[in-house]
Amino acid sequence: MTTSEMIKQRGLALGADAVGIGNIERWKGAPLQMDPRQIMPECKSMIGMVFRVMRGSLRGVEEGTFFSNYSSMGYGGITYLFMPMVVMNLCRMIEDDGYEAVPMGHQSDWRGIDNEGAVRPGYSVPVAPGRAAPDVMLHLRIGAYLCGLGEIGYSKMFLSPQFGPRCRVGLILTDLELEPDPIYSGPPLCNRCKACTVHCPGQAISREKTVKVELEGKTIEWGELDCKACDIAFRGGKVVDEPDKKGFYTEAMYGKKITASQYSPFVKKPSNLYNTGQAVCGGRGCVRACMVSMEKRKVLGNKFKKEFRRDPLWTVDWSQPENSRVAAAGEHISQVSLSNTSAGNLVKVAAEGEKNGALPRIKEAD
Ligand code: SF4
Ligand code: SF4
């Protein structure tokens, strides 16, 4: 009989950085579209796995010289390559024992809801009364929390005691009953320093407005996230305010022209890596500023010989003559699409949604 200890040992041996286990009762009250029992009605346990994002994957963005590594090795490659291998191989161990195991990573492109839980307009319908509209999408960060792997910070990022915000999360649902781990109750990881809000290039994390959820008898609170602002800023863009000014960094987003922000050295948004990797902001607020804050407080298990931040933060001055000249030279080079699903489609849906007062807010970098 497979035990929790065996699962953890195998998960770590396969390449996960931390493995935790929660029971299905902890998902009581989950919204229909995010309820694991909608995927597996007989589910008894959930296995959560943390995969670290290398601090080195953020180095090039920090230096302002090498951006692709965070989007590829930092999350795209983990999300679409490394994590599925580990999660699927761990599922094989469970299914060899005669229990079903659902391997879950980031399948958010197919989900039936937007970032705020609203049903995507014109997308899918329930197959029977009482069932969710496909696809159900589990909240991976909440899953990690309910498996005892760490906290959810003010930034709404999952924070682990080893790596802070440098985490990607994989989950397994199974009808195998396993001994659950307690919810994380170690030293507090988020101290409400709000560095994430200060350094976010889109000012997407509110400093005042918060969202509260009840999870396993505890109130978890994070800053309200403006997904639209993040959606634009994390790609390195910003809205063009002046009507006579051009914006060619991406195609129009949310009906607005977009230009390169001071946090992007690219004239146009570079192409996606590993399907969704396009985080030009390199988690400036929610990952890097948070990690710097946590490392200073010495609350993380993964310690380094040198501090991460060695120079003042850089910004790009696009009004500088040489930079304007490069931008003008690149203006007519064709744009790359926003994402594999968005491109024309989401912009069209967004336009429809705006008319109906229900703007879809899709961001794949979850
Ligand atoms: S930056 Fe500070 S407030 Fe924001 S999540 Fe990290 S520790 Fe919490
Ligand atoms: S991904 Fe970038 S833009 Fe989005 S919340 Fe984090 S720091 Fe802000």
What does this structure look like?
This protein has ten helices and ten strands. With 366 residues, the protein is of the alpha+beta class. Among the domains are: 179 residues, no CATH class; 50 residues, no CATH class. Helix 1 runs antiparallel to helix 4. The longest helix has 29 residues. The two termini are 35 Å apart. The C terminus is likely disordered. One iron/sulfur cluster (SF4) binds next to helix 6 and helix 8. The site of one iron/sulfur cluster has 13 residues, from helix 7 and helix 8.
* Main structural class: alpha+beta
**Unreliable runs:** 341-366
Strand order of the largest sheet: 1-2-6-3
Bound molecules: iron/sulfur cluster
Task: Describe the main β-sheet briefly.
Answer: 4 strands, antiparallel
Cα-to-Cα separation, first versus last residue: 35 Å
Q: Tally the helices: what do you get?
A: 10
The succession of helices and strands, N to C, reads: HEHEHHEHEEEHEEHEEHHH
Number of beta strands: 10
Strand content: 15-25%
Would you tell me the overall average pLDDT? 91
What would you report as the Rg, rounded to the nearest angstrom?
21 Å
**Fraction of helical residues:** 25-40%
Shape: globular
SSE blueprint and pairings:
Blueprint: H1 4-14, E1 18-23, H2 36-39, E2 45-52, H3 59-63, H4 68-96, E3 101-104, H5 140-146, E4 151-152, E5 158-159, E6 167-174, H6 195-199, E7 205-215, E8 218-225, H7 227-233, E9 237-239, E10 258-260, H8 284-296, H9 321-330, H10 343-356
Antiparallel strand pairs: 1-2, 2-6, 3-6, 4-5, 7-8, 9-10
Helix pairs in contact: 1-4
Bound molecules: iron/sulfur cluster (2 copies).
